[in-house]
Amino acid sequence: MYLCTTSQYIINIKCSQLLKTYHCRKVIKNKQFVQKTLWTCDMKLKELESYLQGLEVFKSPKVKLEQYPTSPHIAARMLHTIDTRYKDLDGCTVADLGCGCGVLAIGASLLGASMCFGIDIDKDALDISYQNYCEYELKNLELIQMDVTKMPGTQWNQLFDTVIMNPPFGTKQNRGIDMLFLKTGLNMATRAVYSLHKTATREHIRKKTKEWGVNMEVISELRFDLLSSYKFHKHQSVDIQVDFIRFSFPSSHLPISRTEKNNLLWKK
What are phi and psi of 231, to 5 degrees? Predict the structure, then answer.
């Protein structure tokens, strides 16, 4: 099931048709997978990338929402770094903002997040995420339909240890949306926010995070290969220089207790 918000309530929705469609594949594919119980912090990078390669992606991406899937190659390396270098996944509560097809959320769940929430405005994207969710019978993942740029007030503040995201980069129609995602993530996290941003915007982001009193570390520079997804694309793919960034808080940042956090999470 995934969670769909209407007003201040969260309603459980059972996707019976999806369950019926994917049941046979799920049982056959995951019999060996479940026996091995590989979704732990010991999962190797190549294993993680292999599982992420099996996930469904957008068939009809929406231009307005800048829907480009995060490649399994990049997603696996992002998540493996977050988990092994910074210890910000295993045993942590995690939110994936603008989760799309769920590659980051599902990867975080496989790597041992205690609970992971994938949040997206688009029901079609969440349907794909749910199909992928069913494939691996994950018990530590929930999906929420909500506009990340309009998250309600302080209700979600400091509810998660870690926030991960590949936000819209911000076209002419969505200018500044990447910073709205980042600000929302920083309000929600207590440990760190991990995000992808165009390298060309690095100094602007550095200036804003300094104003906000947040630490910024560019972990690596990546070449994000945007495959031709829309009719107006003239080339098969375009390489964009992207920064993989960790945003963290100074020692004076006092998070709420884990018990209080869990109580608030399950009241949502």
Answer: -60, -30
Provide CB contacts within 8 A for 234, sequence distance 6+.
none
pLDDT digits (tens, 9 = 90+) for 226-252: 654 444 445 455 678 999 999 999 875
Which range (77-91, 179-193, 254-268) has the least confidence?
254-268
d(CA 233, CA 51): 29
Q: How far apart are CA 62 and CA 22, in angstroms?
A: 24
Tell me which residue has tokens 């209080």.
260
CB 116 within 8 A of CB 104: no
Q: Which two tokens stand for residue 195?
A: 């995000």
Measured CA to CA, the distance from residue 118 to residue 140 in angstroms comes to 11
Amino acid at 219: I
Give me the pLDDT at residue 31, please.
30
Q: Which helix (H) or strand (E) holds 144?
A: strand 141-145
Alpha helices in 168-221 (DSSP H): 177-188, 202-212
Q: How far is CA 88 from the centre of its chain?
A: 14
How wide is the angle at C-alpha 1 spanned by C-alphas 17 and 177, nearest 5°?
110
pLDDT at residue 227 in the model = 53
- CA-nearest of 84, 91, 120, 121 to 103 is 120
Strand 189-198's sheet: what is its strand order? 9-13, 2-6, 141-145, 115-120, 93-97, 160-165, 189-198, 237-248, 215-227
Give the residue among 127, 102, 131, 129 at the shortest CA–CA distance from 26. 131
pLDDT value at position 175? 78
